[in-house]
Structure formats: C-alpha cells, structure tokens
Amino acid sequence: MYAQMIKSEATKDDPEKLVAFQARIDADEKIEPKDWMPEGYRKTLIRQIGQHAHSEIVGQLPEGNWITRAPTLERKAILLAKVQDEAGHGLYLYCAAETLGVSRDELTEMLLDGRMKYSSIFNYPTLNWADIGAVGWLVDGAAIMNQVPLQRTSFGPYSRAMIRICKEESFHQRQGYDAIRKMAEGTPEQKKMAQDALNRFWYPSLMMFGPSDKDSVHSEQSMAWKIKINTNDELRQKFVDQTVPQAEYLGLTIPDPDLKWNEESGHYDFSEPDWSEFFDVIKGNGPCNVDRLAARNKAWDDGKWVRDGLLAHAQKRKAAKVAAE
Amino acid sequence: MTRDEAFFQFLLRMGDNTLILGHRVSEWCGHAPVLEEDIALANTALDLIGQTQMWLGLAGEVQGEGKSADDLAFLRDAWDFRNVLLVEMPNGDFGRTLMRQFLFDAWHSIMLTRLRDSKDARVAAIAEKAGKEVTYHLERSGDTVIGLGDGTDESHARMQEALDYLWPYVGEMFEGDAVDAEMAEAGIAPDPSGLRADYDALVGRVLAKATLTIPDSRFAHKGGRNGRMHTEHLGHLLTQMQWLQRAYPGATW
Question: Would you kindly state one Gene Ontology biological process term found in this protein's UniProt entry (chain A) (predicted)?
Fold first, then answer.
C-alpha cells in the first residue's frame, strides 16, 4: 500500500532532477536535508527513521519491565544505562527525522494512533530475567546486523545517527550475552530460564529482518536509493551464521530441529519463522501490542499537564525578559 | 553501641536512601511525560544505584561479616532498612515524583558537601564523587519544580498538592539520635539537625520562585532512619526488588 503511494508520488518529480539525484547516490555522495530529494525518498526515510525511533521508545518497556527486579545492583545499573541509551537513540533519530520536515510531536501522534509502526519484536513479553540477556544478545544483535550497513546510508543525518548508535549497541549486545552466559553456566533453574528465553526469542529475532526478499514490498527502490543496503534474507543468514556458534558455546539449543551446517553453501540451513505470526503481530495481534500502545498513550496523556506547565513557564520567562529589555 | 556499630548504621542510612529512591525513580522507565524526562529519570536512578553500591559496599566492610552490597540490598527485611520515609513514598504523578526528588536532593547535596570533610577518608571520597552527581540532580529537580509550580494553573495546583503531601516527611531527615551523636563525635558525619538552616534557606528560595507555599507545620512522620516503623509501601517495594535473590538463593547473576 505504502510502496504504491511512494511510487505514484515519485513519478511526479522532475525526471531530470531524478536522474541527477540518482547519480549522486550512485557516486556515494551523502544527501543533506537542504538538498533536493524525490518526495518518495523523503517519505520513505521519514517512515523508516520514525519507525526506528519509535522502536527505541517502545523498546524501553520490555526492558524496563525488569529494572525493578534486576537481581544485583550491578545488573540493575547496567540495565538502567542501557535503557537510557535506547531513549537517547530515540532522541537522535527523531532529530534526524525532523530534518526531513516532520516534527517529533507529529511522529509521536502517528505512533500513538497506530498510523506508524515500531519493531514487531517489542510486542513480545519479557517473562524471566534471562529474557533481558536474550534481548541484548539476540534482539540487539539482530538490530546491529541491520544498522551497521546503515552507517553508509545515503541520507547524511541518518548515517551519522547510525554511527553513534552502533557504538552503543555493540556494548548492549555484549552485556546481554554476558548476562545470559552467567545463567547458562549457573544453577539448573538459571539454565532453564536461559533456554526458555532462547526458545521464545529465536524466531521473533529472525523476523526482525522483515519478510523474505520475494515478499518485501519496500526493498527494490530503497536499495537503489541506498536507504537499505542489504536484503532481508542476506542479513538474516548472516545473523544465523553468527549466532549459532554463540549458542553452542553457551550450551543452549536453538529451537530449530532442521538447523544444520551446509558445507556446500558455507552457511547454516535453518527454518523460516512462521510468517503468518509475523503478519498477525504487525496487524496488532502480537502478545503485547495493545498493552505497549496503551502504556505509551497513557504516558503521553498523563504527561500533558507537565509539558503544558513547562511550556507556560518558559513563555512567562521569555515575556519577562523581553519586558526587562 | 560501639563506634563501628554506629558507623554501620550511618552507612545503611546513606545507602538505603539512595537504593530505595533509585528504585522508585527507575519505576518511571518508559512512562515519563517527554523523552528528555525518560532519559533524565533513568540517569538519576543510575547515579543513585551507583552511590548505593559505594555506601552499602563500605557498610559491609565496616560490619565485618563478609556481606556484600548486594547481600545488604537484597537479603534484609523491611525492619532492617534505614532509609527515611520520604524516599519510599510511591511515585504518584510526575509532580509528586519531582517534588520528592527535590526535597531529598536539597538535603542530600547539603549532607554530601559536609561529608567531604569527614575524618573517614572513604566517606569523604564517596561524598566527593556522589556530590558531583547530586549537584546536577538538585539543579534539575529544582528547575522542574520551579517550572511546574510557576507554569499553568493545573501544574501549580498539582505541585502544591505534592508539596502538602510530602512536607510531613521532610522533618525526619533532620532528627538526630545516638548514632548521629556518635558519628559527630568521631568527626565522620555531621549531626543532621545542623543541616536544617541551610536546607530551609535553599528550599525556601526555590519554592518561592515556584510560587508554592510551604505548609505551616513542622510535624514530622518518623521511623524510617531508625527502622522503628516504615510505611506500608516499603514491603511491596522489597517484594519486587528482592524477588530473584530470595527465590533462587545462592545463585550468581
């Protein structure tokens, strides 16, 4: 649906300008906010960066779910630092999106009324402490896989935000792996928690790369524009190849009986996730969709008096300053 | 009471204040009115938990029973906690959370400034490090209290309500007892009653700018810092905070 809209808008652009724009992209030049860009490029970027920002914000919820129950002071501090980083990522990304002519408040409204999405993974619950490890190891691991190539994306502000974000994400992934390793090496109950977390997060993590290339509606144009660098399937394969040995090291079993090394291809063969579940989650029927959005709406509605109050105070001070001059 | 016993109690008071308040503030994660506040609240909670590690770490050392900061945080029951009642009060709305933070930060910053002169070098070092963080906490909570107190009619009313609700929990921070007398004599920590004048001046300045009225009562709820009688809220907080350590004893995380 969206891809169709983008296509029809793209054709309204001046063909000469489009050719020149594509030439700049092909020459690996960065596009900056004041440069001319096709309407479809702008819209696609707003959708992609906004969705990424929303994911950082909603992503605070499943991790925040365990801050008050973290088992040691150190784990609590690490998790707080991580969630604080995620909120900071949201802030850079909203700023990057704002350079495209959309305000943070507009984007927030679109998240809250369901017009914009966030990563499907955050619609899954965090049920035991090992989930926090699994989120760092698998979810941040998959996110890094997606984001590292985006450091080279064609839109300057997005590329620069990604460079900063990737540095912090790799710390997040390491702390997640360390947390789950502690449990995999711990008591039988801890090991059970670690395995349970892997069982629940494995397929949703594979879904994070999006549908298979043949079913992905946004891929082709986005790749030509270098908004997207690799295909969904390439990144998913890379993630599986990286993660399987890590799980083996932990002594945990990936919940896929068909997973095996393929000597010929030099990659692991693995089962596809259940794509009907993925589309259900996207449509709003994941285990936590309703609660996540309700929590964000409540925070926004409950916070209105605070935002209004601080704004009113700032205006009073400004008026007083003007009167004094 | 020996000097070390008093010292241990003093350190628990410092560490339990930061632990319990850090926990309360962390409950906001993902629910703040604006993204900048999510970041600032997480940052404040993180500082407070870091300070807890230092105070309770030293407490374990002074106690001499081989207990770690984690043992003290996760394996004591409510009656052994020594935080003031103020910090265990539930978050309420954002206004109450920030008012609680301001009323505590003002005390905390004055206390830490005095503790930099402690004759115990370890206490002075913690106060030095924590003091820098708390200077920022106070600046932020003070500015927010002013902004909301002198904002809209609604924000003003909510902040006044928060102040009225929390004011009876302020006095406990200045109540001295035998532990404090022992610490003062040893030159480790000041007698808390000696901080009140500075506190009143600081809080008075900020609340005046916030156009808020300090309640005309010095009545003080007490019982947290000596453990005699906490509020009902603390037990619930501990069931969450201590759950994993209690449910799986002996595991390392």
Answer: phenylacetate catabolic process
Torsional class of A35: left (φ above 0), alpha (ψ -120 to 50), beta (otherwise): beta
Integer Cα distance of B145 and A154 in angstroms: 43
Length of chain A, in residues:
325
Residues of B in contact with A81 (CB under 8 A): 42, 46
Q: Which helix (H) or strand (E) holds A262?
A: strand A260-262
Q: Do B253 and A90 touch (CB under 8 A)?
A: no
Supply the Cα-derived Rg of chain A in whole angstroms: 21
Q: List Cβ neighbours of A260 (8 Å cut-off, separation of 6 or more).
A: A268, A269
Which of A219, A231, A193, A216 lies closest to A278 in space, CA to CA?
Answer: A216
- Beta-carbon separation of B151 and A310 below 8 A: yes
> Model pTM?
0.95
Question: What ipTM was assigned to the predicted interfaces of this complex?
Answer: 0.97
Query: Of A74, A80, A275, A265, whose CA–CA distance to A182 is shortest?
Result: A74
Distances (CA, A) of B185 to B11, B117, B230: 16, 14, 28
In angstroms, the CA B203 to CA B181 distance is 26
Of the candidates A129, A66, A71, A69, the one whose C-alpha atom is nearest the C-alpha of residue B68 is: A71
Encode chain A (325 residues) as per-residue pLDDT tens digits: 333 334 444 557 889 999 999 999 999 999 999 999 999 999 999 999 999 999 999 999 999 999 999 999 999 999 999 999 999 999 999 999 999 999 999 999 999 999 999 999 999 999 999 999 999 999 999 999 999 999 999 999 999 999 999 998 888 999 999 999 999 999 999 999 999 999 999 999 999 999 988 877 667 889 999 999 999 999 999 999 999 999 999 999 999 999 999 999 999 999 999 999 999 999 999 999 999 999 999 999 999 999 999 999 999 999 999 988 8
Please report which helix (H) or strand (E) contains residue A269, including its range.
Answer: strand A267-269
Contact across the interface for B147 and A313, Cβ inside 8 Å: yes
Residue from A75, A80, A170 nearest A130 by CA: A75
Q: Decide if A307 and B34 are in contact by the 8 Å CB cutoff.
A: yes
B224 within 8 A of B84, measured Cβ to Cβ: yes
Test the A interface: residue of B19, B154, B155 with most A CBs within 10 Å:
B155
Task: Report the top-level CATH class of B3-214+222-247.
Answer: mainly alpha
**What SS3 class is residue A5?**
helix
CATH superfamily of A15-324: Ferritin, core subunit, four-helix bundle (1.20.1260.10)
**Which tokens go with B33?**
């009115």
Integer Cα distance of B71 and B46 in angstroms: 19
Chain B contacts of A93, Cβ < 8 Å? none
Instruction: Kindly list the residues from chain A whose CB atom is less than 8 angstroms away from the CB atom of residue B253.
Output: 71-72, 75, 129, 179, 182-183, 186
